[in-house]
Design a protein that fits this description.
mainly alpha, 74% helix
Length: 245
């Protein structure tokens, strides 16, 4: 309302030197503003466009793009068919999806209280997805040019961990998109401990720690923690995080 009054005043002021009757111009402008506002309010009441579903869909899209990016980065270390040249595009897709999700959440929070999303759950979800993306960024930007050479035991355990992260993130994205679906959680923490134990044994045998292995172990630890946080948020009794049917 304040904005409309200010715009009307500016228009009348600018036309005062051109129109012979600025008062009539102001009255016409006021009438048009009132009619336009009334039409907008009637349309909003008759056909409300609540922001909960778009916000939930945007968060689900962010989870899906983050899943693709994280798994692609991890597979690039394993040499599992991921083309490293596609990683920057996946990174940009994550940034775009995050911007869309934050904008959709802001729109939903402007709705009446009964129609809003659960802001706390969405904030926690966005924070966990951001941690995943940052860990993937770190691995991508510090990825060695030459192909990674892994000890057979470490490669086996790391492959199992990456596959489990892939499955868990795929389930999380599906739950955000379709609602509550049951699936078996992967033992990510146990799988990460196996990678840590194997890499430590190799380092002790060699008498030195491989810098790349240390990096991967540290960042996958962050990823496991973030994925487990996401699973915990989605397992809560509240269903307000999911898009309504």
């Amino acid at each position: 309302a304040v904005f409309s009054v200010a715009i009307t005043g500016v228009v009348v002021f600018l036309l005062a030197g051109l129109e012979p009757d600025p008062v009539t111009t102001g009255e016409d402008r006021l009438l048009a503003t009132v009619l336009g506002a009334a039409m907008a309010l009637i349309s909003y009441i008759a056909f409300p466009t609540w922001g909960r579903r778009p916000a939930s869909e945007a968060v689900a899209d962010l989870a899906s793009t983050t899943h693709s990016y994280v798994v692609a980065v991890l597979n690039s270390y394993l040499g599992a068919g991921t083309d490293p040249s596609t990683l920057p595009a996946l990174s940009r897709a994550v940034r775009l999806a995050r911007t869309n999700a934050e904008s959709a959440i802001d729109r939903s929070l402007a709705d009446p209280g009964s129609r809003q999303i659960d802001s706390q759950s969405h904030v926690e979800t966005l924070a966990a997805l951001r941690r995943l993306a940052i860990a993937a960024h770190t691995l991508r930007l510090r990825r060695p040019v030459a192909a990674a050479q892994w000890n057979a035991l470490v490669r086996r355990d790391l492959t199992q961990l990456v596959d489990a992260i892939d499955i868990e993130l795929n389930g999380i994205a599906a739950r955000l998109q379709f609602g509550r679906i049951a699936y078996h959680h992967e033992p990510l923490r146990e799988l990460h401990r196996a990678v840590l134990t194997a890499s430590a044994a190799v380092a002790d045998a060699a008498g030195d720690s491989n810098e790349m292995t240390v990096l991967v172990v540290a960042e996958t630890d962050e990823m496991v923690d973030a994925v487990n946080t996401l699973a915990d948020v989605l397992d809560r009794p509240s269903g307000s995080l999911f898009a309504p049917a």
